[in-house]
Batch of 2 targets.
Target 1
Amino acid sequence: MREYLPVLVFAAVAVLFAVSTIGVSTIIVPRRSSARKMAPYECGVEPVGDARQRFEIKFYLVAVLFILFDIEAVFLYPWAVAFRQLGLYGLVEMGLFILVLVVGYLYLLFKRAFDWN
Amino acid sequence: MTILFAGLAAVLVVSSLMVILHKNPVTSALFLVLAFCSLAGIYLTLQAEFIGMVQVIVYAGAIMVLFLFVIMYLNLGRDVETGIQIAVRRGLGWIVGAVLLAEGAVMFGRRWGLGPVTPGPSRPPVGNTQALGQILYSRYLFPFEVTSMVLLVAMVGAIVITRGQERARRESMGTRAGARGPGGRPPRTHAEEAVAEPGLAPAAAGEPEEQASVAGSARP
């Protein structure tokens, strides 16, 4: 566990920095609000509608496909670490794993899932 | 170590409580990210480095993106539910909570499934990730290969659901071309419209005054 001490120190400093900057600014900043200050600001343009708009489903499709390939990549980590112990056997089974997902990738390619328009 | 666990557990409990108690779904989702991160820290204290990192990469990184997407797609920015929906949900919540509590009681009472109590996790001779790799790609080879099929099915499912809706939209385009509102907005998919139509009236009715004042000047 001792090797994680730098990570812990880093995390503690990060939290401390965030808390202290926000905390100090809430304490010392004067608050004089006016109607003009509280108005929503959108690059000097009059705001149009609500920010919570529905957007197209293809963004969600990209997110789903990202997760699937993300999980595939996660499986590569322990395989790579234990590669020397697994040898050729491990190479073949990971080849099968990747092959199935390449079929999926080709399916996505043929279905034009990566085309934006 | 105990202090570290206590701190992480405290953050985990508080952020989990904020997830279910906060009114704004987006804020709840962000507190869920904090909960996942502190859970990853607890995994690290248990010397399960790989699981901890996966917790951050997959859950806090990727799954939460989907959660936020769903919140935005369903337009859950404000409460639009009627009384009966809340009542049903609350009832289900009590039932699920009772089951979870009973499960926890059984776990604590009988140490069910915990196995013999060891004095503490002994450091494996090789790294945790390496040990996991060795066992995952030898003894649990079949589940691992099945995982690739599961991922493939998920890919096909995602395409079929989204593309099928697009085709349905294109087919109904001719009949409903005049029904769409004024231009400027990108055309919505069939799925979005299906979600939108029942929710439109309550969302518009429940719009608070500050929204109306902001939008009133801009909207035609």
Target 2
Amino acid sequence: MGVHLPPFQHLVDEHAAELHRFLVASVGPHDAEDCLQETFLSALRAYPRLRHGDNLRAWLYLIAQRKATDLVRRLGRRPVSDLDGVPPERLSVPPQAIGDDGLWMAVRQLPAKQRAAVVHRFVFDLAYREVAVRMGISEVAARQNVSAGLRRLRMEVER
Amino acid sequence: MTDLEQRLAGSPATTVDRGQLATALARRASEARLLDVAFAALDSPLGELTVFVTRRGVVRIAYADEPIDALLDEMAASLSPRILRAPGSTDAARRELEAYFAGERQAFDVPVDWSLIHGFATGVLRATARIPFGRTSSYGQVAMSAGSPRAARAAGNALGSNPIPIVVPCHRVLHADGGLGGYSGGLDRKRFLLRLEGSLPG
């Protein structure tokens, strides 16, 4: 008998809202929805090949983290001339939605693990132990990623 | 907390449009052939029905008595965990059922996926699927059609576990003496369906 995996619809019902929030903080509200769909599609593609059904939440966050990184890279690589026709909110997080344009732009530019750790720690207000569980990493690594991320953000924002 | 940490924590809560997400996800999953089992609910005179469809056809129809979580677990274990609520993919089956309940349709054209039916039950339910609208048969007759004329009781069990009621019309099988026999959805539903088809006096 194979691994017991819950019906995929359960993952969508249980985690769509929190993954959306994670993605809004990671890539901005404009692209979060599409990133969320991409996350679930990738998860659905790989789903039957999973060897166990433990910590599916961390697995989904890891996929979302990758999708966010792909998107940031794609937008970053876009030549400047291509940006002319792009509405401004695509280039940065709209201030009215999130409060601080520059800060959230800097969050988006963080290395993937640092960005995820900072978002889990502060946007979701999680203890390091919980950050570690959600990311499927050790508590020590969670602390290191948060503090490295904060250091980088401070340099960007307080420059 | 430093000022920076406070600013990070101050990001507003977000809301995701679940309906829009579900529609887009189901459509894209289906296009990418990543959707193995689609399901959606439909209102009927017998209460809400949940219809499950695979690429082959209708695989399961459940009355509201069966809790949706248990049903989804059953489908995940026996068919595939790639299951999504997908009204689009179940549309054809749901429209035919609606037409049937409205008295506008006597036979179903949507294909049936027999994957959940095994062994002796296959013969019994395939024989049952051939009983036309407005006609009835007996447990002994369907057992005979399945190749075991003495297995009326086993045929009763097979009919009781019919995963696709209504479309595979197990309600058309009665006792030889005219008694109603059993029905997994309850005898009230069996009576309703037989009256709808004119097999029982209204």
